[in-house]
Amino acid sequence: MATQSIATMPRAERKPLGAFRLKDGSTLEDLIDYEHREVALRVLADPEIFDIEMDRIFARVWQVVAHESEVPNRGDFVTRYLGRDSVIVSRDRTGAIKVVLNACTHRGMRVCRTDAGNSNQHVCPYHGWTFDHSGRFLGSPLAAEQMHGSTREKSELGLRAARVEIFCGMVFATLDEDAPPLEQHLGHAAWYWKLMFDVADGGLEVIGAPQRFTIKTNWKCPGEQHAGDGYHVLTLHRSLLTLFRKGDSEGADLASGLNVNWNGHGLRCVDLQRGIDASTDLNTDTALERLRKRPPGGLSPAQIEKLPEMLTPEQLHVLAFHPPQVGGAFPHAGTFTTPAPLPDGTMSWKTAWHAFVPRAPGEIEFFNWHLVPKNATDKVREQMARASVMAFGISGFIETDDADTWPTMYESALGHFGAKGKLRYGALLGEKKPAGWPGPGHVHAGVSKDDNQWNWWMRWAEFMSGDPYGDKIHDKWVA
Amino acid sequence: MMASTANDTLDETPEVGGPSPEIIGTPMPQGERIRFGAAEYNEIADFLTEEAAMLDDVEYLKWFDMLHEELIYRMPVRVSRPINDGNQFAGDMCHFDEDKSTIMLKCRRLIMPYAWSENPSSRARRILGTIRVFRRDAPDEYDVTSSMVVVRYRRDMEIISGKRVDLICRSPEGFKLKRRTILSDQTTMLTQNLTIFL
After folding, report:
1. Torsions phi, psi for A7 (to 5 deg)
2. What whole-number distance in Å separates Cα of residue A333 and Cα of residue A300?
3. Do A394 and B191 touch (CB under 8 A)?
4. Do A394 and B193 touch (CB under 8 A)?
5. ipTM of the complex
6. With A26 labelled, which of A125, A229, A391, B197 sits at a CA distance of 20 to 30 A?
7. How many CB pairs under 8 A join A and B?
8. CB contact, 8 Å: A311 with chain B?
């Protein structure tokens, strides 16, 4: 593979990586067809492409690893992944969250070997090399013998530290020192995520711990879907329409709303005036009146009354009538603040982040963080947990169908002829921003088509080109 | 190892590495242990065998009849922690968090032809062992623990293993499952989804 690697380049020389060429001579241009808006199906299974993704995407991009409430106390840690690297996410003695590579600089052993715990220092179980939460090498047993050797300074023996930023309580990290600030990576999508995850006065917290399970599929199957595929709901999730909907409409109203995208991130704002509330009097209410009757995300009455202070009137209107409910953060996260039914048919809420962590071309580990307002009553917390688990994640009646079908996309891409197939994104709405729409980004009002997913693939291609932050990228973030 | 005396409760002799009952909300076996081979033991073991067979055969309606109206059916998320560092279960987050109404809803969905996750059906065997039966203070109620290995095939083989802590009641219509807590051995579940019951 005639391809430069970001991992082996000294920092000062990190110019754009050159184009890659696969063993069979293919280049990026052979994998993505802008004219027909098609992607070669082989990208879902080819191990060579997977290796390039680990190098050009997951070694560089900001990735969600945890929620800050998972490590509430000093010394708390959880172990997570950046790409295929195990990392330790911990809260240090100053209260700051640190993320370091979980591979001892001595012999490579995992320093932390549990999912979670509490420790003042990270002590490797092999020879006792000891590190602080920021990865600094503190020393090793038999200090007088200087067992860390004489060829390296102690300052060279620390665990590699990731850059860390918090967004709406979620901990993002990257091992690329040259990545732009997280705000720039999230870009205009942040405006919508703040309406999903930053409207609870006092913040959100994780219920318990994330569900974790493995699916034998490629990470891009859930990745591109979460960017904004509302269309699949009509067929893949048809069983839900039968269970929960009266009448037998084709369901186009469910797929209606606004798809918004930016920089590979995508979100779907639903049109509540056409959806579940279409026949109620809520449409004549003011935004605040409506939010009082249908508090989103498990917000308490007191939290609803705080909203006018926290949001502009325009944001309040979007939250009440066109709330962003589902979406994805490039490259591999899913985002939800969406109604979820309780067994008795009344509506509760699911507020969640997913991460689809790549483990192999055909395997992901699915992380599912369920969130709830920090000061929610026990009843609200219990209802949101139950509604979330009933509908989403490993046993939920929605996402279990996705988990059964994504693997077959990967399997198709393993076939000789299957690999020559295409992922097709021919159906675009084009930019259609309703008059007065206050939100930023590319806005596509109407039935959920391929606009968001195609934006996702263009971002994928920019990372794969080796120059994801250069002048040529299609969505240039402006402050 | 737990001895099999009447006084032997988990409060006094915690199982090493096991869950703390307070945190996962599952009262652990109490009361007199009923020995293997005793009539009540055989009845309970027979009930569990029949229940597993109904699930293996995807006989949702027959299985549904074996569930108590007040069923609580949970599978808490497991987290590996250092051995001296408290509880391994997330407590308020579960892989399953069901009652009889949600199980009915899910079963209604699973028999639809477009519930793709179980069309075609998974082929799964539930292998039970290490069954222990304890007589509770309440009449006709039993705490039952069992080990479970489930081998499931869809495209690939998946294995689920764990311990089940059940509350089983005797009623005029036969035994009913009133509470099941499934304590998985896996922290990251090695299964793509849980559209089979355990």
Report:
1. -70, -30
2. 27
3. yes
4. yes
5. 0.91
6. A229
7. 130
8. no
Cβ A429 vs Cβ A447: under 8 Å: yes
Question: Is B90 close to A208, i.e. CB distance below 8 A?
Answer: yes
Distance of CA A98 to the CA centre of its chain: 19
Q: Rg (Cα) of chain B, in Å, rounded?
A: 17
Contacts of B152 in chain A (CB under 8 A): none
- Which helix (H) or strand (E) covers residue A451, if one does? helix A451-464
Q: Chain B contact for A374, CB < 8 A?
A: no
Cα angle A23, A464, A13; round to 5: 100
- The answer to whether A411 faces chain B, any CB pair under 8 Å, is yes
How do residues B110-154 score in pLDDT, each as one tens digit?
988 889 999 999 999 999 999 999 999 888 999 999 999 999 999
Nearest to A297 by CA among A196, A167, A219, A386: A196
Average pLDDT, chain A: 91
For residue A328 the two structure tokens come to 């994805």
Identify the weakest region by mean pLDDT among A327-331, A411-415, B102-106.
B102-106
Report d(CA A139, CA A105) in Å as an integer: 12
Instruction: Mark yes or no for CB contact A389/B92 under 8 Å.
Output: no
A187 by Cβ neighbours in 10 Å (0-12 / 13-18 / 19+) ranks as buried
- Please name which of A411, A340, A371 lies closest in space to residue A205, comparing C-alpha atoms: A371
pTM confidence score: 0.93
Among A268, A266, A192, A261, CA closest to A233:
A268
**β-pair partners for A318:** none
CA distance to partner chain B, nearest, from residue A67 (Å): 15
DSSP assigned state of A55: I
Task: Tell which of B71, B73, B77 to mutate to test the A interface (max A CBs under 10 Å).
Answer: B77
Give the start-end residues of each E strand in A250-401. 257-262, 265-270, 324-329, 333-341, 347-360, 363-373
Question: Is A404 in contact with B187 (Cβ distance < 8 A)?
Answer: no
**Would you say A370 and A388 are in contact if contact means Cβ atoms under 8 Å apart?**
yes
